[in-house]
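Hi support team,

I submitted a single chain yesterday and got back a structure, but I'm not sure I'm reading the token output correctly. Could someone confirm the output below corresponds to the sequence I sent? I've pasted both exactly as they appear in my results page.

Thanks,
R.
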Amino acid sequence: MNLPINKNKIIFAVIWVLALIALIYLVSLMNGATKKSKVPQKTTSSNFSIWIVEDEKEKFTEILKKFKDKNKAYTNINFVVENFSDYEEYFYTLQSAIIAGKEPDVFMLNNNEKSGLEEQVSGLDPAIVNAQNFRKEFKTFFGEDLIRTTSIKNPDDPEKEEIVEFLAWIPLGYETLWIFYNRRYIESKDVASWASISDATKQLKETNSDIIPLALWNGSTVPYSYDILTQFFMLDDIVSFEKAEGNKMKQWLTTYLLYGDVEWNNAYNTRFADLISSWKNAIDLFSKEEVAMLIGYPRMLNDIDKKWFKKTFLMASPFPHYFIGNGKSLVNYNYFVINKNTKNYNLANDFLAYLISEEGQNAYLDAYPYYLPAMVKLEEKRLEKKVNTNFNIALKDFMDKEFIFSSFDKGLKAMYDKEITNILDDETNATNSFERLKNVLLCKYNKMVKFEKLSTVCK
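Hi R., thanks for writing in. Yes, this is the structure output for that exact sequence:
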């Protein structure tokens, strides 16, 4: 017997099913951007590639072991780590790998450039860390550098959009420039300001004429010379290569070059030819007590150690400002990103979630103790630790809480660092060469990153 059909019930059922489908679809879209699966999905590859730069590969495997211990689902994954000692080589190899489709799942970028490779990066799942909480828990400049915004459809009103903040990349630690000094010739008061350094330079030259007070002038024999000059610019609040112009730029470039002038007290350049011909640098002179002061990053302690510097004579202090509260201190760090083309997104997301956790941050700092902690709560404990166990120097020796830390926009880091080094080797043409570099750098940045004025000849 045929029962009468209730059209109202059928219509209601159809509407209910369509509404349910729409709801499921909307939730799936939201979850795709904001919800991390509790059970990692099976990856499509048994290999997971990570590229790092300027840090030891062997130390990184210790971090991966701790990650696997905490995430048993990835025990059988083969983690392939590649490390590069030179950022320029790393950057161009990474570009080539992306073009060839052989890029890593997770890699690093540097804070001091707005790289075109940012387009190759997948933003971090917002469920891992809230942007506002990140601002509270990490050093201030990280929030300024690494938090991004995007717009999403309002689920209640699809015609409206909402602005959402998210953390794009993961920081683990950072570096600032220090002055290492030999306490046989230099006291802490001598490195408190640049006026003090100038006075100490004059006095030391009068009492020990065979000793060069400070390793500063040319680019080739002074490690991190490009960042030392950059730090001079930042003492006048110049925070990008575009703003390094006019009298301020010339003043700091002249100050830097003054310390190499053979006619002045410091006269570092008297050793330039010898160092170049013998493939040595300022660290060799410092370790032989032929130089009394040396500027560099905390990691330089390992290089000093290899040169057998006497433990009891080594001290360190923050790169001085002219006046407390004026200018900014350069920060340098590499941050982790997820390749947007990775076939192992869940694993990449879980790995970065581990790195951003307190446990992951500690694991990284244990592996690389020359980094200052990115997470504020780790400072109290970490700043007491020695950078190198062979020296009585702790991270706290290089912290001045009055300083304002900031990144410097180099535009194209690899090119900036290389060309600044070359410019500093040519004292006579340094000012004109820097002005020319700035124009060329800006032109190439617009072409390579912004894809503007592609037919322009950069010169």
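A quick pointer for reading it: Confidence is low (pLDDT under 50) at residues 1-43. Let us know if anything else looks off.

Best,
Support desk
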